[in-house]
Amino acid sequence: MVAHALGFAACVGDPPPPYSTPSSDGGTVSSDGATNGGGATNADGATNGDGATPPCDLDAPFSAPALVPGIDTPGNNEMLARLSSDELTIYFTSDRAREHDGEPSIDDRDIYVASRTKRTDRFGPPVRVAELTTPQSDSAPMLTPDGRTLFFESTRPGSSLHAIWVATRTETGQFTDIRRLDSLDSVGDERAPFFSPADDALWFGSNRHDPDRSYGIYRAKRNGADFEPPELVEELFTPDSHWFPVLSADGLTIYWGSNRADGGAKGDFDVWRARRSTTSDRFGPPENVSELNTPSAELPTWISPDGCRLYLQRRDESERNSIYVAEKPPKM
Predict the structure, then answer these.
(1) Which CATH superfamily is domain 2-327 in?
(2) Which tens digits make up the pLDDT trace of 44-57?
(3) Would you state the torsion angle of the CA atoms of residues 95, 97, 100, 104, taken in this order, to the nearest 10 degrees?
């Protein structure tokens, strides 16, 4: 079953305010002064973004995934991690509060945020984002590169199943104007939204084509403050399940999770990848990213703007999910 791949000290409070403002190079400047996007320089000195030279060998395989330090907690599920462009702030989903706050064992997933000073540091203590928390499942936070908008999935009242919601962040770090994106609703589930600035579109997984069975990847172009009707990404579709889309900064490479059994699949959900020449082209043949996969479930969640680091979640033998990162090797 698809849902089998989504297993998930509680802190309640406001998120830190790493909001972004425009910088002179077309990227953004985070609250700690580090620039990101637009070919900018991170706090650790690495360049990234459109037009910059990646500091890694993009043609090389990823390293073995390693746990992201500062996030993992024994016995809890940590998953669906997305980061700010400078990788200094991480938003993710956790069910850690269920044991401490008396919340139910179902629909107990909440959105957390944590920060660090440098990309190579451990993350500080995660904080639950209070204004995005309900007794229902609130999950899969996706912050836009400018730091102003956050998309997420939720089963909160007003949602038929899992629906996609959006919130706006103020300069104080608070999320306001929280609303459901009705234009993306269907009779099925809408899961794990990922915003791609390269084609100004929201990508997500949905089973609207067959609510009792598999998921497919859909894409909805932004239309002002709303989105156009979602379209199935047909070239990536098979009768198997496909979801958790993650696009590179230029929109030319897509990673996603699928339980398809061909092409060297290792079992359960694997990380897959496909490429295209322009954002208006169809993606080419899918390939299994074999160095990231095991017989357990692996699902991609975010990739750095320079394409050097892929964040993913992995489920272990005890059915617990944890957040990992895999890196491309440096250029020689």
Answers:
(1) TolB, C-terminal domain (2.120.10.30)
(2) 434 444 456 789 99
(3) -60
